[in-house]
Amino acid sequence: MMSAYRVLPGPEHFLPPAAASMGIRLPNPGEAHINGVIVPEDQAYEEAARQFLMAKVPTIFPGPLVLWAWNEKAAKKATAIRHLFETLKECVQPGQKPMLIPMPDYRPKYPKINPEIEINPNHPNLTIWHNKIDCCMFIGVHCHQANLSLKIIRGGTSCYTIAMCAQAGHEDAMLSFRDASVEKIMKLAETVKRLKGTVQPRLSAAKN
Amino acid sequence: MAETKSLIGTQNKKGQTYTDPWKMLNEAPRTPSFFTGSEVIKEAIRRASCDIMIAYPITPQSEAAALIGELFAEGYVGDYFRGESEFAVMSQCAGASFGGARVFTTTAGPGTMRAMENFPMWAGARLPIQMIVTCRGINSPLSIQPDTLEISYLLNTGMLVWHAETAQDFFDWILKGFIVSEEPDVHLPLALCCDGFFVTHTKDVVQLTPADMCLPPYDPYRSPVPCMDMECPPVRMMRDPFIMKSNYISYATHASWQQEVWAAVERSRKHTIHWLNGLIDTENTDAEIMIVASGTAVSQGREAIRMLEDEGVRCGLVKVKTLRPWPEEEIREATKHAKHIFVPEFNVTGWLAKEIRATIPDHHRVHAGPHVCGGMTMPPEIIVSEIKTALGMKTFSLAGRGS
């Protein structure tokens, strides 16, 4: 039975539920989900690109699986992510500010993280708030940590979240790809380029 | 993410071929064999590409643990040793799993209880360890006999919990269990339970897959958490918990972590339905009388249904295969026509009946029983008697022969 629950930008709740516990199911290969509804993957490229181009501060959060060159594939993905970021910068309008903020590890950063230059899964809301991020994409983050972070973001901020997951995807993001590859990252960059100038950006201050 | 190429089609050091699991379990020829449940555990593990088994003797799982020692001697299991206690075994299993190994262990009764602290830790750390639980009595006075009370303690640990009825279930589900619990979106420990002695120490015909085929090895690079990183959660979380910091976000992080474990249990639903062909099996779901059971109570229920049919009473059956994930929708659907739902159980508290009552509408339809415990058998006649009594039919007392 399909769930009536929808994974939407927050702030949702003092402690929002895990989307999986609300009946949201992960996509099969060749599919993605938008707001918890399974869609063909091609539709998700369009929507992800649109959300990036609408955002005042579209941000990519690369995690340890792509930040460290622990194998050849990781290094190639990192290059593709950089290309996506450069494409975003070329395609946005004045007033929009794309960012690339790393999640280098998952260590609890106590007593204080510098949230403006890095994001941590334990308190991702700080990075969203400090940088007024209204759309973000997780990539290269271990699945458990990504879900943890996505849920906290949905709970306390209005940020639109995208997951480019190398495994089965994330219900706790508002939009999720699965089986992420260099080709998929490049296809998203191409879609951003193709939609350049066709999407009206939200240039009012982000409400996080 | 990892640069690991598929090993399917290649051979391990014992000459077994790493085989696509679906083909191995659903398409490969099967050989009928007459084995005890303990021997069946051994045969499943022979085909499971296990990196390590850690053992501790406690009846009725001791024989299975010893038989896997033989497998180690033969070279089918990567490593094998005996821990100092069940608590030590489960902690050592965690260490091996943190390090990226496919880990297997067995326990029972008081052993399960002694090791209990480890199970939510396994689930929280997303360790896909498989533990066979050959259920027996847990309370004083001591009983080594079959009793399923220990399962109720496992239900809220965050582990997957399956309850096998037969040795055939056991063989297939051990292998399928590794596949489901190692999916990256699940990646949780599995407690694969059976009723001790009834399954472990009786012989049955079991259809085995070819011994020269085995599962592909575990790929730790698909894990949703990093392997054994002392500076990162979940390892660091255990020595430096979020909860030690008294602020909202530390608590929220811990809460989200817990939610994520239960989200993973939910995600296992899709994979489990695929591999076990559903979370429940059913017969005669249009009947007004249903028996809902798990484990060997299903077998007794099936026999009771046959006996009732001889008396003109039509009765249906729901075999509950998985307790976590809990087949809520399936049970609701399968019992929607039932006016009476009987839940025979091998334990004193009736935990399965409580779960079912919390699941279905009109829960007054649930008759929590018959119950036996402490090692008693459950003759199908007492299920028949319970049903006939509830229906107002004449029945004989099975309490004893009298003077």
Describe the structure.
The complex is a heterodimer of chains A (208) and B (403). Chain A has 6 helices and 7 strands. By secondary structure, chain A is of the alpha/beta class. Chain A has one domain (39-194): Rossmann fold, CATH 3.40.50.1220. In chain A, strand 5, helix 5 (143-156) and strand 6 form a beta-alpha-beta unit. The model of chain A has no long low-confidence stretch (mean pLDDT 94). Chain B has 403 residues and is an alpha/beta fold. Chain B has 2 domains: 17-222, 3-Layer(aba) Sandwich (Rossmann fold), CATH 3.40.50.970; 281-390, 3-Layer(aba) Sandwich (Rossmann fold). Helix content of chain B is 37%, strand content 17%. Chain B is built from 14 helices and 16 strands. Chain B has helices spanning 21-26, 37-46, 62-74, 86-98, 109-114, 118-124, 149-154, 167-181, 235-239, 248-276, 296-310, 328-334, 351-357, 380-390, and strands at 17-18, 31-36, 52-55, 79-82, 103-107, 130-135, 160-163, 190-195, 203-208, 213-214, 280-283, 289-293, 316-320, 322-324, 340-342, 366-367. Chain B has a 7-stranded mixed sheet, with helices on both faces. Chain B has a 5-stranded mixed sheet with strand order 11-13-12-15-16, with helices on both faces. In chain B, strands 1-10 form a two-stranded parallel sheet. The model of chain B has no long low-confidence stretch (mean pLDDT 93).
